[in-house]
Design a protein that fits this description.
With about 325 residues, this protein is an alpha+beta fold. The chain has a single domain (about 35-310), classed as Sulfite Oxidase, Chain A, domain 2 (Alpha-Beta Complex), CATH 3.90.420.10. The protein contains nine helices and 13 strands. The strands form two sheets. Strands 1, 4, 5, 8, 9, 10, 12 and 13 form an eight-stranded mixed beta sheet that branches. A five-stranded mixed beta sheet has the order 3-2-11-6-7. Strand 2 (about 105-110) and strand 3 (about 120) form a beta hairpin. It is globular and about 45 Å long. The structure holds ligand MTE.
């Protein structure tokens, strides 16, 4: 008997990627490095002007089936309560200090174990793909959480076009290093630039999103404009912001918080209520806007989709 298990998102298939778009995507996958760099008419990813302006809608966004059925945290909270140490360590520093951060033009270097390496305009990496709105749970290691309507494209779709070699076991990410534009980098609170990494199967998982917007609009700088990573079953610090480099590697790459405090932050950083941070419990969280704490869910509520990636691994050891 076929038992249908309800997923943690439940929009119908018809709300997801339309067939024509899906077919276009397949066609593009057949493309070459030249096609990768070719200009594609369509969605605007980076803002038209150098600086961010409020209210600029991203065109052609479709609703994704990968969406939780909960009200989103208000935009004012998503865009004013942030962690982005390049613009200060206070929660309200990024919104003030990143206000004039110029994100156009913006290039992303693709390096390492892949056929299609080189430097690409961010629009050329993102625009060939259908932009999707996905409402995800967003859980910070500091135990606050939000429900955020991100806009982005599956990282796996981008990776397929870059054609990683069989040696590519991990994907490493790097944030811009430019202390003049990111004044927080003048202080050594972390080793700059901010770096992150995923195992290849995590990077290819359909939930992993290269994110270019929020609430249907171009990404505000404080949230990681013009392009940041979102891995919804991991703590928020895996969601590296303002990415300028992606490298396919054979070995596990370094990650900023693991470098800074290896006993507190591991490479995997999967949300896990059973494994406490050495200085506090991870069993509960405070959803911004709610008074009472909620129990934290294994893999942030995405266990059904991602637990299989970690079969046989001791999650207390690989935290
Ligand atoms: N990326 C960079 N480059 N620098 C940072 O300080 N902070 C991380 C992550 N990405 C950070 C970063 C942390 S700790 C969290 S919780 C999330 O961004 C916060 O994302 P948000 O501000 O959009 O909620």
């Amino acid at each position: 008997m076929l038992i249908k298990i309800r997923k943690s998102w439940h929009l119908s298939e018809s709300d997801a990627t339309p067939e024509a778009v899906f077919k276009n995507r397949r066609t593009f996958l057949k493309g070459t490095a030249a096609a990768l760099a070719a200009p594609v008419a369509g969605a605007l990813v980076s803002p038209a002007r150098a600086g961010w302006e409020p209210g600029v809608k991203l065109p052609g966004v479709v609703k994704s089936k990968y969406t939780v059925d909960e009200p989103s945290t208000p935009f004012k909270d998503v865009a004013s309560y942030n962690n982005f140490y390049e613009f200060g360590t206070g929660k309200d520093d990024p919104v003030k200090n990143a206000k004039d951060f110029v994100t156009k033009p913006w290039t992303v270097e693709i390096a390492g174990e892949a056929a299609n390496t080189g430097t690409f305009d961010v629009d050329d990496l993102i625009r060939p793909h259908q932009l999707e709105e996905r409402i995800y749970r967003h859980r910070c290691v500091e135990t606050w959480s939000m429900i955020v309507p991100w806009v982005g494209v599956p990282l796996g779709d981008i990776i397929k076009r870059l054609e990683p070699t069989s040696k590519a076991k991990y994907v490493a990410f790097e944030t811009l290093y430019d202390p003049e534009r990111m004044p927080g980098q003048k202080r050594r609170v972390l080793q700059w630039p901010y770096v992150e990494g995923l195992r290849m199967d995590e990077a290819m998982h359909p939930l992993t999103l290269m994110t270019v917007g929020v609430y249907g609009e171009v990404m505000p700088p404080q949230n990681g404009a013009p392009v940041r990573l979102i891995v919804p079953w991991k703590y928020g610090f895996k969601g590296i912001k303002s990415i300028v480099k992606i490298t396919f590697t054979e070995d596990e790459p370094p990650t900023s918080w693991n470098r800074s405090a290896p006993h507190e932050y591991g490479f995997y950083a999967n949300v896990n209520p059973d494994v406490a941070h050495p200085r506090w419990s991870q069993a509960k969280e405070r959803l911004i806007g709610e008074f009472f704490k909620r129990p934290t869910l294994m893999f942030n509520g995405y266990a059904q989709e991602v637990a299989g990636l970690y079969t046989g691994m001791d999650l207390a050891k690989y935290y």
